C-alpha cells in the first residue's frame, strides 16, 4: 500500500489529525514559523486554505469547515480542489516545492477529501498523509475535558462523563480505513502515546525542525481547579458556552498554569478523641486550678463533654462566598473607575480656598465648558478612529475586531447625528458674511448687553466665530465619545450614515490626527444582504420584474455613490485613510487586522488575538445563498455599468 515517493515537482503534506492528538499545537507552530518554513521551500496552507496566496471563497478561514459543507458535498469538493490547485500553482510560480495542509476534521471526511487528493496526484503532486492515533480511553477523557466541561457543546446542565459519551461510539478504524485504501507517496500512521512531543515528532518526521523553531502549545489540559471552575461556571447556562467566557480571568489569576494548594477543614479541626486527650494531659493542672477557684468561691472547671460546634462547610457555600467576594470587588472597581472619571473631568480646575481634603470633585453637569475643553485637548482624544461603511457591508466585524485592542474603544452606530452639523458647517464656510475667526466677529459688541447701533447690520451677528464653533463642537464630540475612557485609550466609532463629503470633511477639520477606515464589499453581496434585511423581501416573489429592477437599481446607485465618496476622500487624504475589502478581511483576518492596526498606529503587542478569533468565529457566518437572486442583481448591475443613467 505504501510505496516510495516518485520524483515530483511539488509535494503536499496532509496532516489529518486525529483530534485530541496535539493538532492545534502543530497548527499553531506551523502558523508561527512560516518564515522558517519558507526557508525550507515550504508553505503552510492553514486549516481551510486561509494561508493560500489565492483567496476566492468565503470559507477560506480557520473556522470555515462548517461553512464549506453547507454548500453541499459536490460543490464543496469542486471548490476544495480549485482552492488546492490554485494555491499550489501560485507556490510553484514562487519557486516553492512543498506545502502543508493540517486539519483534524479531514480524518472523518475521507470520502470527501481522498478523491480530491487523488485527482491532484495526476497533476504531478506527491501526496504525503500523516495521522496520529491515540489510545481510546485517554482520547475519551481528553475529549470530555475539552468539549464536555471546558467548551460545553450541548444544551442543558453539565453532563457527567458516562452520560456525555452515551450519544456516540468511539471508533477510529472505520475512518482510517478510507485513507488506507488509497496509495499515497507516503502514509504515516503514528502512535501519539509513544511519540513523545507530537509537534517535535511531526517536524522531525518531515525534516523541518531547526533550533529556530518556536514550538506552540495550544489547548493543553488545564489544572483540575481550573476545570472545576469551568464546570461550575458553564453549569449555570442552558446553552452551549465557549471557553473564552472564563479563560481570560483564569489566565490573569494564573490558575491555568498553577494549581493552588488546598486543605480539608474537617481534617484540620480537633476530633472528640483529640479533645479527650487534652483533658487527660492537664488533669494535674486542672486539680490545682480547682483548689484556687474554690478558695475564691468559684465553681470547678467543667469536665463534661464539650458542646458540639458545627464547622462543616459545603463546597457550594465556599463557591457562593467567593462569588460574593468577586461581586464586591467588581463593585469597588466600578466605583474607582467612576472616581477616576470624576477626577479626570475636574482636571485643570483652580484649587479652592480652604482644606483640600474637604473639596469634592465637580460632577459632569457642574463642569464648565472651559474645563471640558481643557480635558478634551488630551492628545489621544484628538486622534480618534472612524470606520465608515455602507449598510450591511460587514462593518460590525471590523468594530468587533478593533475592540479587541485594550487601548481603543470603537463605539457603534448613533443615528448619524453629525450629518446635520456637517451640512450646517459646510453652509457656514460658504457664507462670506459668517465670521470666520474671533477677530472678525463683531456680533457680541453689537448686541451685548443690548442693541448698540439701531442702524448697524446685525443679520449675521453671532456669539462665536467659525473657529469658535469648531472648538466647541470638537469638545462636545470628544466629551460624547471619550468621557468614559481611561487616559491611555483612544475613541472612535463606526457608522453607516456618514457616506457624504460634508460630514467627512467636518471630521477631518475637527480631528486632523484622526484616522479613517473605509470598508468595501462586493456590491452584489451588499445588495443581496440589504434585500434580505428589508421588509420588502417578503413581497419579492409577488412583485413584478419592473418593481424589482427599480429596487435593485436604487440600492446599486446608492452603494456606488458611497464608494465614490470614499475614493474621493482617500485621494485628498491618503495618509489618514485606508480602504479595506471585506472579502480580504474574511479570508485573512489576522493579516488585514494587522494592516488596520498599523494604519491606526496601534501597538500590536497588547492586541487580544484569542478574543479576535472568537469574534471572527461568531460573526463570519454563511449568508443565505440564492443563485437566482444573485444572477438578477448581476444582470441589473451590468446594465447600469453599460448605461450609467
Write up what this structure looks like:
- It is a single chain.
- With 645 residues, this protein is α/β, with parallel strands linked by helices.
- 49% of the residues lie in helices and 9% in strands.
- It is built from 27 helices and 10 strands.
- It has helices at 23-32, 34-39, 65-70, 73-94, 110-121, 136-150, 161-164, 173-180, 198-205, 224-234, 244-253, 265-268, 272-281, 283-295, 315-345, 369-376, 395-402, 418-430, 443-447, 466-482, 501-510, 523-533, 545-572, 582-587, 589-599, 609-619, 627-642, and strands spanning 10-15, 42-46, 98-102, 125-133, 186-191, 385-389, 408-411, 490-495, 515-520, 577-581.
- The strands form 2 sheets. It has a 5-stranded parallel beta sheet, sandwiched between helices. A 5-stranded parallel beta sheet has the order 7-8-6-9-10, sandwiched between helices.
- Helix 16 (369-376) crosses helix 20 (466-482), helix 17 packs antiparallel against helix 26 (609-619) and helix 22 crosses helix 23.
- It is flat, with a radius of gyration of 34 Å.
- The protein starts with 9 loop residues before the first strand and ends with a helix.
- Residues 1-7 and 346-379 have low confidence and may be disordered.
List the helices and strands and how they pair.
Blueprint (H helix, E strand, L loop, with lengths): L9 E6 L7 H10 L1 H6 L2 E5 L18 H6 L2 H22 L3 E5 L7 H12 L3 E9 L2 H15 L10 H4 L8 H8 L5 E6 L6 H8 L18 H11 L9 H10 L11 H4 L3 H10 L1 H13 L19 H31 L23 H8 L8 E5 L5 H8 L5 E4 L6 H13 L12 H5 L18 H17 L7 E6 L5 H10 L4 E6 L2 H11 L11 H28 L4 E5 H6 L1 H11 L9 H11 L7 H16 L3
Parallel strand pairs: 1-3, 1-4, 2-3, 4-5, 6-8, 6-9, 7-8, 9-10
